[in-house]
């Protein structure tokens, strides 16, 4: 599909992350006003609250854009998703006769503050990137036993915390936690010294389910995607995680990008999952191309310094699609809600330059890497800014998510000092 032209001129360049082909959904405010829903187009945002009040947009079932999240709209159902995208496309297309009415409802992105685009109902994180799982497994268990025996049969996951999901730009405070190194006799309580990122995609469930659903149904229940940084304390995790999985190591924060890119916008970028070593069981069987070709990268910038690209990979490196993860999630009968967020698991490619976490980049802290400033890193230092970037490259256009940014703030004093 080629670039679809908009009367918003800035949307018509090959590099603009928000062309008419994209139309991602976010929440914004201006001048300290109330946050409200908006749609990005070029360097502008269409104010959905005002557009609805003006009668330019109407969704079956009554007012949906009075609040500060997209949950109410998602809950209106798949027909509403299709209808709104069609309406927005017509409204913003080159030659639209609604231009005169719509143009005054645009807000410059320069003047807007972006907020959480959805209320996250629940958050689940998976471990479905093969290169990542192999690298981590090699470090912890040796190359022979790198992949756990279940890995090629099941998308491994854990239930995370919706309360800790934050929007891009939110500072992340270095946590304290219980730490015990391999040579320590006893654990101690201290600030994490091995704080890390995880480059992931987040899938947003837009339709509720109650009981086991198929991969096809799961695919159609996914409303859209965000970039997701699953911040991880690598020195808290190894002590706490056996036998129930990650807990406080993953509970400090998870950052998502500010714009939800809809599954509809990503449709031209669908691709297949890789060849299977073992046939998947019925509830996980591939049912068409449900993964996406999205270029992903990570930059790191020391305080006041320029950003260095430290990893470049692609979402198509996943072994399981989000649809397979969602289907698996429901296989026990687990109900899913509108606004559930599913992290893909860290996405790494086969090369060193394609590793989506610092523990892989520095091979467990043993191999420091160098930034453009000449400084070296193994894990995140205070004041470092980490940015995830995602781009799907179309025929003369790009689909972006808005950057997923977080700055590491220094640990506070011991919260339990006595
Ligand atoms: Mn993760």
Structural features, described:
The protein has 2 domains: 9-115, SH3 type barrels (Roll); 123-409, Alpha-Beta Complex (Fumarylacetoacetate hydrolase, domain 2). A hairpin with a 2-residue loop joins strand 2 and strand 3. It contains 10 helices and 27 strands. It is of the alpha+beta class and 418 residues long. Strands 6, 7, 8, 13, 14, 16, 17 and 22 form an 8-stranded mixed beta sheet that branches. Strands 9, 20, 21, 25, 26 and 27 form a 6-stranded mixed beta sheet that branches. A 5-stranded antiparallel beta sheet has the order 4-3-2-1-5. Bound molecules: manganese (II) ion. Manganese (II) ion (MN) binds next to loops.
Features of the shown structure:
418 residues, alpha+beta, SH3 type barrels, Fumarylacetoacetate hydrolase, domain 2, 2 domains, 8-stranded mixed sheet, 6-stranded mixed sheet, 10 helices, binds manganese (II) ion
* Number of helical elements: 10
End-to-end distance, in Å?
63 Å
- Overall morphology: globular
CATH topology of the largest domain: Fumarylacetoacetate hydrolase, domain 2
CATH first level of the largest domain: Alpha Beta
- Measured by DSSP, the beta-strand proportion falls in 25-35%
Radius of gyration: 21 Å
Q: List low-confidence stretches.
A: none
Number of domains: 2
How is the biggest beta sheet arranged?
Answer: 8 strands, mixed
- Mean of the pLDDT scores? 97
Query: What's the β-strand tally?
Result: 27
CATH architecture of the largest domain: Alpha-Beta Complex
Proportion of residues in helical segments: 10-25%
Question: What structural class results from the helix and strand content?
Answer: alpha+beta
Q: How would you name the CATH homologous superfamily of the largest domain?
A: Fumarylacetoacetase-like, C-terminal domain
**Ions, cofactors, ligands: which are bound?**
manganese (II) ion
